[in-house]
Structures are given as structure tokens and as C-alpha cells.
Write a structure and sequence with these properties.
It is a single chain. By secondary structure, the protein is an all-alpha fold. It has helices at residues 7-25, 32-39, 43-49, 53-77, 84-96, 100-109, 111-117, 128-144, 154-169, 179-190. The termini are far apart.
Length: 201
């Protein structure tokens, strides 16, 4: 990588390389050397942009949290369209079908990384917390539109969906679950509180 490359470009290339290493080698295989080797650049490039490797990992997770929140905003805007079960199924598949499961494993396995992320996420698991908040906002919007029952406790439903989705996708050695399997789980969690035709996928 040329030394004159823009920082944002270098950061994104390093982030993408880290995700590839994470998916193929898991949290234990994610080292600064593995990342720079995967990115095809000198090891000094990473340390030119980040104070240390844990700071790099913290920025990687924060960047992916921002993407999750952006997807959540889109989900919230789609309230009232499609089906509630279908919308949630798509959101969970997009979240956990990506690198999110491996990212959660990374966060839970590194104490220093978790400590740095505590500044923004004082409780719970970073990334999963933000994903839960996006689903809570979506379900709240659907409740306001009357597509989810008025007495539905969205603060319970959202983390239940995230937990179930995480478990469904957790086995990285197996093929990811298909839409039918995800839909079945979503319908089991929210089917009783969705009104009218909003359950159909």
C-alpha cells in the first residue's frame, strides 16, 4: 500500500482485511500481522493510523456499530410496509449473516477491547446492544401504526429476537440458516403480537 494513501482508504482496507481474517481464523487468529498481511501492506501502516492494535479493533467495532445503526434507521423507515415478520427476518439475516457473529466473539474474548468499548456501551455486549435498540425502535413504530398490538412489550421482544437470531447463526462451521428457519424463529417470538396480515412473509 503506498504510504501516501488517504487515511480513510487505509482504515477501510484494514477493516475489511480484519473481517476476512476474523471469518476465516476466528478471534484468536486476528493479529496485527495477520491483518496487514491480508491487506497486503506493511505492518507500520496499521500503527500509523492507530495507537495500538486494541485501538484498531475498537475502531473496527465502532465502525460496524455505526453501520448497524444506519441499517436500523432504514428498517425503522420501512415500518408500515411489507410484513412485520418479513421485515424482522430480513434485518436479522442481514445482521447475523454478515461478520456480526464473529465480531461478537471478538468483543467477548478480549478484555482490553471490551474496556475501551465500555465508554460508549457501558452495559451489555457492543453491537448486540445497538442491534437490540434498532429492533426496539422498529417494533415501537409498528405498534404506533397498529400493526403490533398496543400491549406488546417491545423492550422484551427485541432482545429476545436478537438472542434467538444470534444463537441461530452462531455455528460458523455450518451453513447459515435459510430464510425459512429465520422466519420460523421470528414468527414464534412475535406472531402472537402482530395484528392482521402483518405476519405473512
Amino acid at each position: 500500500m503506498p504510504t501516501g494513501v488517504a487515511m480513510r482508504d487505509a482504515r477501510e482496507q484494514l477493516f475489511e482485511a480484519a473481517e476476512r481474517v476474523l471469518l476465516t481464523s476466528g478471534p484468536n487468529g486476528l493479529t496485527s500481522r495477520a491483518v496487514t498481511t491480508e491487506a497486503g501492506c506493511a505492518k507500520g501502516v496499521l500503527h500509523r493510523h492507530f495507537a495500538d492494535f486494541d485501538e484498531f479493533l475498537a475502531e473496527l467495532v465502532r465502525d460496524r456499530i455505526a453501520r448497524t445503526e444506519a441499517r436500523g434507521a432504514t428498517l425503522r423507515e420501512n415500518a408500515g410496509t411489507g410484513s412485520v415478520v418479513g421485515n424482522i427476518t430480513g434485518a436479522l439475516t442481514e445482521l447475523f449473516g454478515s461478520v456480526a457473529v464473529a465480531m461478537v466473539g471478538l468483543v467477548t474474548s478480549r478484555d482490553e477491547l471490551r474496556a475501551r468499548l465500555r465508554e460508549a456501551t457501558p452495559t451489555g455486549i457492543p453491537l448486540l446492544n445497538e442491534a437490540t435498540a434498532t429492533l426496539t425502535a422498529y417494533l415501537t413504530a409498528e405498534r404506533e401504526l397498529g400493526r403490533v398490538r398496543a400491549d406488546a412489550d417491545v423492550t422484551v421482544l427485541a432482545p429476545t429476537l436478537i438472542g434467538a437470531g444470534h444463537l441461530l447463526f452462531a455455528d460458523r462451521t455450518a451453513p447459515p440458516p435459510g430464510p425459512e428457519a429465520v422466519t420460523k424463529v421470528v414468527a414464534a417470538v412475535v406472531g402472537g403480537v402482530v395484528n392482521g396480515g402483518s405476519t405473512a412473509t
